[in-house]
Structure formats: structure tokens, C-alpha cells
Amino acid sequence: MSGDPRELYQAVILEHNKKPRNFGKLAPCTHHAEGHNPLCGDQLQLTLNVEDGRIADIKFDGSGCAIDVASASLMTGAVKGRTVAEAEQMASEFRALVRGELDPAMPHHIGKLTLFEGVKNLPVRVKCAVLPWATLSSALKGEAQASTE
Amino acid sequence: MSTALAPLDTARIRAEFPLLATPFHERKLVYLDSAVSGQMPSPVIERMAHYERFEHTNVHRGVSTLSQEATDRFEEAREKVRAFINAPSTKEIIWTRGTTEALNLVAQSWGRTNIQAGDELLLSAMEHHANIVPWQMLAAEKGATIKVIPMNDEGELLLDGLDELITGRTKVLGLTHVSNALGTINPVKAIVAKAKARGVVTVIDGAQAVPHLPVDVRDLDCDFYAFSGHKLSGPTGIGVLYGRKELLEAMPPWHGGGNMILSVSWEKTTYMGLPGKFEAGTPPIAAAIGLGAAIDYLAALGLERIAAHDAALLAYATEQLSAIPGLRIIGTAKAKASVLSFVLDGVHSHDVGSILDHEGIVVRAGHHCAQPVMARMKVPATTRASFTYFNDAADVDALVAALLKVKEIFG
Questions:
Q1: Does the domain formed by B46-299 have CATH 3.30.70.1450?
Q2: For residues A43 and A36, is the Cβ–Cβ distance under 8 A?
């Protein structure tokens, strides 16, 4: 039995879907990547300016479901101002969270992003939540393309 | 539902589908996804199980009675398919793994033999990826170009310009009978007649047509017609390519191996005649027999009755969904099969799909393997409900109630 979608579609996620933060493109930018979820056609472009090892600014563009858009919106807000190493740590914790491998009650670095915990009960939607983070990892590694496949 | 034919007894029919009787997320399963894959009724499942338990061996092998009987059952299924689409001969019925493989067979065998640099391949704007990508691969290999028959905002092909689209270099027309993403029923017979008059070979994707409409390939007069078993209440892994005999005979084999040869030596190998020439290796025997059983099942329900049932259900669903504020139906052609694609304002189709799933309603959400159709309709994705002979008005009502819940969650 999959989880009740109401647990996932909380007010914060719905609000970020409706009014995404950091939406658009940075030009010029130091890092960029495009993420695709080939199964459903969701696509996302990330542009970043990394200065002295720190994410000075980040924006996302593209179209996707509420989980994808809210995840991108909240992610960009959460990693702005963080070092690359911190962002990568958060990416790995977020992945663990939505796969049910991170207990939000234990110490972590992803703050309110634990509200995506409900995704673990909807296995087919894990890729939607992870797409922005996979794209961020690719951008930071200097890869132009990311895919959830 | 008004029809001159006695209506289908959906309650009795549903009882023959074990999955439909099994609770789903602790609710009654409302299966509105037959366009993705049809469910199999017990007689089909039992027929395949009977084959595997008591009749199984290989076909076209040796002198054993068992092999002869398996071959007979297998070939009887081919005859059922022939009769189902009114093909002239069982030699023109090639087993494939599905519609996709059938279309690839045509592109690879007929296409690589007959397409040259500068030739034009004509496809409709509403093709499934299965009737696009094989032709793109061929065009890239041969230096041919692909042209597209456009469609209007309703999802109807714009045929006024067809005479100009077909040029002296047009060699083949790829056309879907029924659009999987929009439900449009294309006027295949009229389009084929125009293409044929100009010497263009016609390849029809019938995957979404055969579950809803009686299909007669002689009446359509097409050169090739492809469909899948699993959209037709049969199993996955089996499909059909009908091809006109003269074309099939002139085509080279596609896959080589056992079963498709007359004799093999290091010096010279000769091939089987039709249909064996295109059936290398051991076929999915139980699946073929299962497809035969599915055709029997549908014939017993009555193809005309199924078509009338589907049409009435589509009309009811269209009326009910149209009344939901913010819901827009994608694909509003005058002639439609019971496939209903839609978008909800401000809600992505995957979110719709997830919430419907929790309500026990199975639909398809996404691009439906028809990304050019989504691009043409300027939507990233749609939610699609498809209706078949075991669905009824209560299923439509459940869908409407669940969609209202989606709207409530998304505010």
C-alpha cells in the first residue's frame, strides 16, 4: 500500500509549487546542468555561480510535477550560500531521506527539507524529488547532463 | 446508454477478471488504463496455463505428436487473427513481439530495401514513438527525409494539404489508426486510397484501434497493419504484422536463425516462404495461443457491441469531465475511441496520477510515448483515462470524485 498523498502534498510543497523561489536563469554562470526524468518527461535546468568554493547564487528553470518543482525551489533556497562540500553532503542526505534510509530524528543537515519524507511511501515519485539534487551534483561536477535513470 | 444492441453486462464481465476483483489500496480497483495494457480475462489466462501444463513443446519441430499438436494450436491462433482483421491469407500474418517490433520489421526489411537517399517518409503528427523512431533510424541511415501531416488543435489531421505533401519522392506513409494520446480515429481508408493512388506504401499502427473498432484490412486496403496482443485482452510478448503478400514475398528476412530456413549449408542458405521467413527462432507459443483465446473472448462479447459500449462510455465521461472547472480535454476530434486525455489547471499530470492511484483509480500520466503530440498541444504531459468493455458509468463517477479530491488538495 502506498502512502496517503495528503501526507506528501503538504502546504509547504503546494505553496512552493505554486510560487517557486529562485526560478529563472543566471547569465553568466559558472556552473550549469540539465536534468531529465526520461520516464515522465520532467526537465530542469540549473544555473549556478560558485565563488571561492561557495554557491553564491543558484536558479532553476523547467517544468515538472509539484514534487519536482517544490524540491527544486526548496533545494535552491537551502544550498544558496553553502560550500560545494556542504551542498554535496545535503544532496546525499536528501537522497537517503526519500529512499527511507535517513531518519529525520537523527542529526542531519537538510533542515526543513525533511518534509519530503513522505516520498519514500510513493516509490514511483522518488525520482521526481531527486531530480533537482541529481542535476545539482552534475552541475557541481562539471557534467552538463543529469538523468534519474 | 442508447444502443440497438443489447448492452454488455459489465458486472458479469468483471467477474471474469481476477485482478478487478482484488482490492487495490484497500479499495475497489477502477482500471482506466486499458490503453496502456488490457487486462486478461480468466478464459485467456486459463487457456495459456492449459497449454503450458499439458500441451507445451516447440512448434514446427520434428515428428512427435506433441509437437504437431502444439503447432496446430499455434497455427489455429494465426487463423483466428487472420479472420479477426479479415486478411486474405494466414501467410500474411506474421507473429512479432508486439506493434513496435512489427513496425521495426517493416522499416528494417521493407525500408532498407526500398528507401534511398532523397526519398521522403510521410508520418502523421499524432504517431506514437513506435511509428516515428524506426523511420528516423532508417532515414538517418539512408539519407531520406521525414515529412509530417499536421493536425489541428482538436487533434484531427489536416488533410487538405495531403496532395501536396505527397511528392514524387514519397515512398511510405506511417499512420496511426487511433491516436493513443488523443483518442482520434483517423480516416485511414480515405488516406490510404490517396497514398495508394500515388504509389505510396501504407503502414498502419493499429495498436489502439483493434480493442475498440472492428478492423478489416481488405476494406482499409493498407499494405501493412500492426497491433499488439496485450492491448487486446491478450498477453504481452505477442503482436501481429499483417502485410500484403506481394510486398512480404519481395522483402528480405529480418532476423536469421532456426525456423525461418528451408536449408542451410556453408555454400547457400534458402529461406522459408511466408510467414516463416519472418519468424526466426522459437516463438512465444503460449502467448500466441492466448491471443487467439482473447480474440474468441472478444468475438463472443461482440465487436460491434464493444464498440457501442465504448462510444457510450466515452460520451458520458466526456460530459462528466467537461463539467469539472479547470479541466481541459486534450483531443476533441469528432471521431474518437474511448481514450480521454486531459489536463487540470495548475496540477501536473503526475500529481493527478499519484492522487488517483491512492483512490484506487489506475490511469496513465505522462507523455504517452508521444512527445511530439504533447509539444503540438503545448502541454508537458496529460492524464489519460481509457475505457473498455468491463468499465461502466460508476467507474467514470469514481474518476470524477477523485479528480474533485485532487482539486481540493491543490486548492
A1: no
A2: yes
Q: List chain B residues with CB under 8 Å of A68.
A: 348
B217 DSSP assignment: H
Q: Is B222 a catalytic residue?
A: no
Does domain B10-31+302-410 fall under CATH 2.30.180.10? My reply is: no
Instruction: Look at residue A17 and tell me if it is in a domain.
Output: yes
Helix, strand and coil in chain A, % to nearest 5: 50, 20, 30
SS3 of residue B346 by DSSP: coil
3-state secondary structure at position B345: coil
Report pTM: 0.93
Contact yes or no for A9 and B351 at CB 8 A: yes
Is residue A148 included in any domain, yes or no?
no
Contact residues for B242 (Cβ-Cβ < 8 A; gap 6+): B85, B87, B92, B93, B94, B217, B224, B225, B226
Residue B3 identity (one-letter amino acid): T
Catalytic residue among B369, B379, B393, B400: B369
| Cα distance between residue B135 and residue B138, in whole Å | 5
The count of residues in chain A is 149
Compute CA distances B114 → B98, B110, B142, whole Å: 23, 6, 10
pLDDT tens, position by position, B262-311:
999 999 999 999 999 999 999 999 999 999 999 999 999 999 999 999 99
- pLDDT interval class at B3 (50, 70, 90): very low
CA distances from B320 to B1, B327, B397, B399 (A): 14, 11, 8, 10
Inform me whether the pLDDT recorded for A1 exceeds 50.
no
Looking at the domain assignment, is residue A21 inside a domain?
yes
CATH number of residue A87's parent domain: 3.90.1010.10
Cβ <8 Å between B380 and A41: yes
pLDDT for A10 equals 86
Chain A residues whose beta carbon lies within 8 Å of the beta carbon of residue B350: 40, 42, 64-65, 67, 125, 128
- To which H or E segment does residue A23 belong? none
Q: Which residues contact B153 (CB under 8 A, 6 or more apart)?
A: B377
Q: How far does chain A reach from its first CA to its final CA, in angstroms?
A: 24
Query: Domain spans of chain B?
Result: 10-31+302-410, 46-299
Q: Which residues of A touch B381 (CB under 8 A)?
A: 40-41
Which ipTM value was assigned to this complex?
0.85
User: Taking a C-beta distance cutoff of 8 angstroms, is the pair B27, B356 a contact?
Assistant: no
Evaluate whether residue A149 is within a structural domain: no
Domain that holds residue A68: 5-141
Q: Look at A9 and B409 and tell me if their CB atoms are within 8 Å.
A: yes
Q: What are phi and psi of B266, to 5 degrees?
A: -65, -25
